[in-house]
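Study this fold:
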Amino acid sequence: MTGTSQEIAHQYLSGLLQYLAGGGEAALQSAYEVGRKAIADGVGGLEMLAIHQKSLAVALRNTRTAKESAQLGERAANFFAESLSPFEMALRGFREANDQLSRNLADVRTAHQALETERRRYRDLFDFAPDGYLVTDLEGRIEEANRAAGVLIGIPAASLTGTRLLQFVVEESRELFATRLKQLPQDDANRVQDWEFDILVRTGDRFPATLGVRVVRNASGLAVGLRWLLRDVTERKRMEEERAQLLVREQVARAQSEAARRFAFLAEIGNLLVASLDSETTLGDVARRIVPYFADWCLVYLVEPDDRIRLLCTVHQDSAKTDAASLLSRGPVNPVSTIARVLSLGHAETFSALPETANEAVAGEPFDFLREQGIQSLILAPIRTHQRVLGLLVLGAVEPDQYQHDHMALAEDIARRCALAVDNAQLYHAMTVERDKAAEANRAKDEFLGILGHELRNPLVPILGWARNFRKSSALAGDPALSQGVEALERNARNILRLADDCLDLVRISERKVNLEKEPLDLNQTVRGSIETLRPLAEEKGLQLVTRLCPSGLWVLGDRTRLEQVINNLLINAIKYTEPGGQISIRSSTISDEHEIEIQDTGIGIAPEFLGQIFQPFRRGSKEWLTSDAGLGLGLAIARKIVELHGGTIWAESPGLGRGSTFHLRLGAAPSGIPAPDSGSVARREPVQAISLRVLLIDDHKDITDLMKMELEALGYTVLTAADGQVGLDTAIREVPDIIVSDVKMPRMDGFQLIENLRRTPGLASVPVIALTGFGMKRDVEAVLTAGYSAHLNKPADISELSDLIQKLAAQCG
């Protein structure tokens, strides 16, 4: 035993003997202080158990009978339990820190600084935690271990770094341990697994242990490490058995009927305390249950946040007497009163005679009133946690010397339960505050995504527009290099637009903010349209497209645009991961009451262990996929969500790497009797020459207004421009255009202020106004329409689509 341990043992023995000699709460407080010093000096729970056993042996030397020894052992167990309280506090703090760390890992990119602060705050608790804590990589190689882990395994914590956890598992269980370790990265990051294995220590002995393990993932969802909580189950069971024996001996010493009655009483108190998070109402209910059980009067005081002491309620079985207690002062209690003194000491006290009150009106104490009611015995039990005092229970009985040691223990137990209920209520309040903060953060995230989409789309409008116009130029047609450059410019700009749309689509779908506009449609037609759209991309890569579609129509009820998005994503995926010269086969068929689309490629394939991951956001099928020109990994995730919204299924199959892959899409067949739409109703058409209209374009991006002015004037419109909302309003008042097309996010006067002013201006109130913005979320569209805009288009809009909308609105006004 070290010098530190010997000092702890000496202090523990001294305190124990004092407590057994009738030291009471003061002696118990010394046990608590010994526990705190043991933690600070690095003395563990096992050493404290050994110190307790040696001290108990010293205390039992002078006992004469077995009964006397048993009684002495019971009281010594209470002293030992109090000395372990600081260990329980450290463990709870450690667990709370570990839970907080696990929650924050998912957001490590944006919360790194806060996480590091939390980790530094709880570092000391990590080292002094009585349970073993390990940090390993995905292969189980130990990167960090606390002192308790070193004690359990029998190797200093610093020496554990670099070793593999597998080597400490008994040989007959290592294969199972390795298999489960390999499967861990595929498990849910938020689920903690509890394993049970026998652990080898350096001496060659073994002990049964529980290993709580959790996978840590980065912000992209990739597994980056493991966290382990190691516990010696043998010691825990031994302690549980000893506590059970103590409880049995205590129950034998009491009358069976009284034990059952007390158990029922405590159970009812427990039910009351968990029934509501309104702590004041709950404490009143507890007081009303205490009175008929072991008190004639029960008063409850609460400590306010400013440390003032307030009388919450008074209870007596006789409602008339309870009403009389309303005369008691409800103001703050004097800080030098008996109540304040008991609260400051923090432990229960009994009184066989009520304290004298010199001036009750000033002190705010109830003793004169209770004396008038015949109260002769009193218990004052603080409602407190280990950190602070929350209130006070005052129990009074008319019988003299009514309250003995077991009554005070019961009162303290009830007070502790009340403290937990009050503490839980306060924690719940704090949680709701944090929840509101999280909701606000989520709203800010959505707002950021909307702004991001807007800011990405604004520069894409002139890029795509000029690329479209350049392609029509006869001067570029004769220059292969310039033609190729313009095609590359347009293709990459559309890729950027697709990435922005994917991000917004994923948010819309995950928040269930996507409304499907279902109609009868033929899946074969949808597939043909996607093939024709993407055929140039496949031919550019030298891929062969083989189509084997069912001769009859495959009619389903679906959103045409969203299902086209799914087919396009699957075809783009196949083109992207198929080497030049390969082949892509597209087949459609009917299976029972479902229609299936199958897209098979001869590409790089998918490893079996990745088949379940490729439909997750930001995940791809293997490291080979990372070397291809992949995007953000959102296409398949969005496709799955859209298919699920249609009530269908989508999955992938692959024989393995280098052997191609097959994607299956199944949707339920449309009910018979639903009329099929005219196949020509969705055909695209080129923009037609517009009737002459005066159009006012308002946008703070000059490149956008210049391009749109040129394109609209080519269609026959007369176009006016304005660089912001204020200039646009002045121009509209002066020129009175037929149609106004405006951005929303602008300096000086934004689009919402603009539409408000337009609708209040005579001569302009009925002019159609189109919102042309980069904000494409549903709530953004609803916001502009509610504000008074006639229609909304998302940037970058096709000029023919904009022209059609202008003509439609002009016709409605004409």
Observations:
- The first strand starts at residue 132 and ends at 136.
